[in-house]
Amino acid sequence: MQLASYMDLHRALAADIRAEREAALDLLGGPAASVRAAVAELLEHRTFTHPLGVLPVMAHAAETGVPDPAVPLAVVSDLWWTAACYLDDLADGEAGSAAGSLDESEALLATVVGGTMLPLLVVQSPRIPAAVRAPLCAEVVRCWIDASEGQLRDLRADLAGATRQAVLAAYLGKSGAPFSMVTAMAARLAGRDDERVELWREFGNTFGILWQLFNDQQDILTGRNEDLANGTVTYLLACALESPAPGTADRVRALHPEARRSPEARAELTSLLLAPEVLRSYEEDIIGFRDGAHGLLDKLGGDAVHRALLHDLVDLASPMLLPPRQGAAAGAAPTGP
User: Which domains does the chain show, CATH number per domain?
Assistant: First the structure.
């Protein structure tokens, strides 16, 4: 099988992942037909532009050369992210259009079952060796706790404590926890020792930070600006608050609350975020996280084909996409990774 990217692997395994997902839904049992139908609709309505459910498959294959045993973990990843994205929509007041024909109460019940109970059933199913079922269950529980902590930090963040390190702590929960869950799971499923499991967990955390930074940039590039409209304290905002340019931090603090309700304030604040000196700092940190992820993969070693796919995925997650604001001085734009 020729594999040039993680998308090739996803296409090759798509039918197996879908069959595994149907088998997972069947674990809910006959008496829970309504629950099964609601979870199935939630899953069908949520599609992902980037099918990162194959991350644990790649990690397992990097360890063993064989991807197929980790297909149930791809389902766990998809279940988790489906639930998390719906809860995020709910927090943003957009849940009404995010769950097909399900009303908000039905979708919330489906989210609880689909994102928590069903992943636990999957990792206790006969497809998973008995020796690792308990550790994998513990990973699911740990992930939800860490991710909830990160989300609460995000929801409660204010500009008074908006340093880059504070934002990273939230990102490690919001995105680091689910990715580190599945990479650590893959290593445990492969029978690796605790030290190696923790290296994979560290890789998942670092990749999660990169992916959150990628999403943050997309929010600006698409013009959605949901982060500013929701008052989210992003890493880029923290970089602007730490900018050495005179008056920048004070103006960011003044505009941030106004940006929740004013398109004009959002536009001015976006202009400050796209200042060349802010983007330089932002890009330097992206490069640092990217190099850290590559370094962890080099340290882990393993199957060359699937390790190359993981390196490629890291590069895809870590471009510098944001252009400097119009009218910025020539030569001030970031050079790109």
Answer: 6-317 (1.10.600.10)
